[in-house]
Amino acid sequence: MWLFLVPSLLGGGDERPPAAWQALDQAVAGLSKAADEPRSFGFLVRGFATGSAVESAEDTAAADVSGFALEDVDVYFAANHGDFAWRVSADLDQSREQRSVELEDAHASWRHTEWFALTVGQFKPRVTRSGSIPASELLFRERTFLGAAFDAWDRGFEIGGHYDQFDYWLALANGASGTQKDHFYSGRVEWAFNDTAIEDREGARGASRYLRILLGASLFADDGPKPAEGQGYAADLAFTFGPYAFHGEWADLRDFARTIDVFNGHTLDVADGQPLAGTLSRRVGDELELAVRYQRADEADSTTALGLGANWSPGGGPLRFLAEVEFVDGDQRDFSLFSIGASLGSSGLTRPFAAGTLN
Predict the structure, then answer these.
(1) How does pLDDT run across 135-175, given as a tens digit for each residue?
(2) Phi, psi of 130 (to 5 degrees)
(3) Is residue 357 part of a domain?
(4) Inter-residue contact 77 to 63 (CB < 8 Å)
(5) Alpha-carbon dihedral sign for residues 140, 242, 32, 18
(6) 358 lies in a domain?
(7) Nearest CA-CA partner of 38 in 69, 84, 1, 81
(8) Is residue 359 part of a domain?
């Protein structure tokens, strides 16, 4: 579907998008209301067509990395009432592996003071910045290796808050063992070097002209059954400066294993190592952003990936077109992926503890 939309939009050259597309942008913006309004609801659809010039050497069904995929078909409902808030969201994508609606967020929050807020229910513990970026704000099709490892919803509770230039989160959740006695523990702190924290967004879209720096550090542990049992710590740095943006992250994992899918069906185990990633992007004008990303999984197969991507936001609205190529290398894998697709809508999330919000 998205492949047929691209030529029609590109056909206008340097002209503004057709009136029909501007009307669509306004309609979607109306559905995807700001998260700090008393009540909000909206949707997000992200679809991609992928081709691979060189397939993996692994002769398994999981190595089929070509075809069309819906990364997200999400809806959300949320409300803020003074110091209380709630949010419910679900993924409606019925992929070949999943034939039912998947509940994502289902939690309520209460803010006692600016530096103490409590969240109870099903939520995504904030471990790495890359794992907490809303899907609608991703710069590439997929998250980084570390981001994908912590892109998971769990049941439990979390306390957090804002003080001066610092934000913190402490979470206790079920973890890999589910409702058994073992749990997942995590703690994270972020320091905004220039007073104001960077929004939960990849890249330089909407960034200010002055330098903004955000430093983050995390500790985490899972008491669940092997191979998920383990612990680790992580650190990350994000900055924006005019049209430029950078995000770097690193972690030390000790007996802490997670299986992720960031190559359209080709799974990857992140465990027992020091994975890292670096992403640099630059806006070109108001609508186009170019990016490069390098990643190292540091797992048994020594997987590395180099990604080159482009984002185009016609009119600056909620519709974005994405194109990227990934070059993946490892002891047992060596392939490339080319993806083109689009993102329409919003996840309805802002940065936690931002002025006037509670999420």
Answers:
(1) 999 999 999 999 999 999 999 999 999 999 999 999 999 98
(2) -65, -30
(3) no
(4) no
(5) negative
(6) no
(7) 81
(8) no
For 330, the token pair is 């490892």
Residue 244 counted as domain residue: yes
Determine contact, residues 301/331, Cβ cutoff 8 Å.
Answer: yes
Q: Token pair for residue 198?
A: 């960077």
- What does the alpha-carbon distance between residue 167 and residue 120 come to, in Å, rounded to a whole number? 18
For Cα atoms 133, 356, 116, give the angle at the middle one, nearest 5 degrees: 80
Assign 3-class secondary structure to the chain: CHHHHHHHHHCCCCCCCCHHHHHHHHHHHHHECCCCCCEEEEEEEEEEEEEEEECCCCCCHHHCCCEEEEEEEEEEEEEEECCEEEEEEEECCCCCCCCCCEEEEEEEEEEEECCEEEEEEEECCCCCHHHHCCHHHCCCCCCCHHHHHCCCCEEEEEEEEEECCEEEEEEEECHHHCCCCCCEEEEEEEEECCCCCCCCCCCCCCCCCCCEEEEEEEEEEECCCCCCCEEEEEEEEEEEECCEEEEEEEEEEECCCEEEEEECCEEEEECCCCCEEEEEEEEECCCEEEEEEEEECCCCCCCEEEEEEEEECHHHCCEEEEEEEEEEECCCCEEEEEEEEEEEECCCCCCCCCCCCCC
**Which of the residues in the chain have pLDDT under 50?**
1-17, 21, 28, 31-36, 56-63
Q: CA-CA distance, 282 to 43, in Å (whole number)? A: 28
* pTM for the full predicted model: 0.84
Nearest to 132 by CA among 188, 53, 91, 172: 188
Query: What tens digit of pLDDT does each residue of 123-132 get?
Result: 999 999 999 9
Contact call for residues 182 and 225 (beta carbons, < 8 A): yes
Residue 168 domain boundaries: 2-345
| Domain count within the chain | 1
Tell me which amino acid residue 356 is: G
CA distances from 18 to 22, 124, 345 (A): 7, 38, 18
Q: What is the CATH number of the domain that holds 137?
A: 2.40.160.10
